[in-house]
Amino acid sequence: MSADTADDHVEHSLREFLGRARWFGGKGRELEVTDVQRLGVVGPPDATEPRVVVHLVEVTYSDGDTELYQVPLAFYAEPQDRLDHAVVGQWTEDGMGQVLAYDATHDRAAMARYLEAFGEEADGELTFRRMQGHDLDLTAPGTLFSGEQSNSSIAFGEDAILKVFRKITPGENPDITTHKVLTEAGSTHIANLYGWVESGDLHLAMLQQFLRTASDGWDIALASVRDLFAEADLHAEEVGGDFAAEAARLGTALKEVHEQLRISFPTGTASAVDIVEGMKGRLHAAVEIVPDLQQYVEGVVAVFDAVDDLGEIPVQRIHGDLHLGQTLRTVLGWKLVDFEGEPAKPLSERLLPDAPWRDVAGMTRSFDYAPHAVAESMPEDDPDVIAQRAHRADEWARRNRKAFLSAYCGELAETDRTLLTAYVLDKAVYECVYEARNRPTWLPIPLAAFPRMI
Ligand SMILES: Nc1ncnc2c1ncn2[C@@H]1O[C@H](COP(=O)(O)OP(=O)(O)O)[C@@H](O)[C@H]1O
Ligand SMILES: O=P(O)(O)O[C@H]1O[C@H](CO)[C@@H](O[C@H]2O[C@H](CO)[C@@H](O)[C@H](O)[C@H]2O)[C@H](O)[C@H]1O
């Protein structure tokens, strides 16, 4: 094979692989792999098999957009039956001859290399950084998480979890930098940062405390709603699975995280007029994707316009995409995870200080989603039962929103209420686009929120 043909073959194999990968954000779009960089070897260059090489793959879509994806590959000379499900391709590698390439995140032997590299704080083409104060278990076996994720997470025994970022934007990754600051400040509401991997100005992976026994806030909320729906004659506060005390603890956790972020990152103000302009821009763009939103535009714009007179709004570093699925309940209280911000926003925007109300709005929307997601999963024809469930769903959402908000900030001032309502609508607009693109059967959940709010 000539060099060109060999490169074409690698690009073709990677394109097929990306198309199958659950974390790949460009599914369904026409694309080419236009560049493949080998960023570096994980572990000693002369290590025995597997040879683990981090690749950075540039994809170019038919509309000209480009994106970078990280693909760590484990190379073997012979087929590895245990990794049949993770094969990427077969080609010739410099110094190795013919190799089989596998997605390294599925390979325990390859992931052991990562852990060893943290032990040595290897400083080669790839830099492995460690935070002080944690005695990392360098022998723990790695297990890939199986959930629907936009990145790939590997748990190491009971100690640590490594999140390998897939879509890469050059520059700071706020998941790492926010966790670093909160860990150094001793925040009790996050999983501590243990380390990270970088290459030049690229942040490639984050190692943090594994909250092994924690329960996902979304799952706990759904169980609470199911308890309520199972008891036709009881109110939310009367059923065993009442969530309000947890909602209040979540409000306190968010308040304390926001306070710390205000101390540790730059703060400032943003003009209400600019905030409203951004919200209206997102609304009009969303209507193009979700035409059903058109009927609510006038009402939503009226709510946004009420923000125009609020002058300068305090802004700071925030979570950016907070919802119940980003909260974990441990025996020591609630932890917030995933400080990357909304996946669809460009990095430059995600790094800008923003109003903390955006996080409050995210949780508010989640309290609305949970009961409606449960109702959605219980097909029903009887209009009385449907109406009764809708009533109880609203009661659950109202109760938990109230508990969360009063723990977060006490009684809301009128101006804060105006601002929060606008942020909640802005989030619902975002959700309509998210659902239309990712889970069209759930689009009715955010859509149904509009008539209740405007
Ligand atoms: N430190 C942790 N310990 C245990 N589970 C975690 C930890 N961080 C995240 N998770 C869980 O891993 C899954 C994905 O985490 P997340 O950070 O949201 O990844 P992604 O950016 O890929 O969506 C979620 O189910 C989350 O609850
Ligand atoms: O967790 P991600 O950072 O990938 O966030 C995206 O996906 C979320 C869904 O997994 C989505 O959240 C929406 O659905 C949740 C229920 O599954 C609900 O609790 C949230 O309130 C709702 O926004 C999130 O918006 C999206 O960015």
Automatic annotation (TrEMBL):
Q: Which InterPro entries match?
A: Kinase-like_dom_sf (IPR011009), Mak_N_cap (IPR040999)
Instruction: Please state the Enzyme Commission number of this protein.
Output: 2.7.1.175
Entry-linked SUPFAM superfamilies:
Protein kinase-like (PK-like)
Please name one Pfam family that this protein belongs to: Mak_N_cap
**Swiss-Prot/TrEMBL catalytic activity:** D-maltose + ATP = alpha-maltose 1-phosphate + ADP + H(+)
Question: Domain of life, per the record?
Answer: Bacteria
State the protein's name. Maltokinase
Task: Recall the taxonomic lineage recorded for the source organism.
Answer: Bacteria, Bacillati, Actinomycetota, Actinomycetes, Propionibacteriales
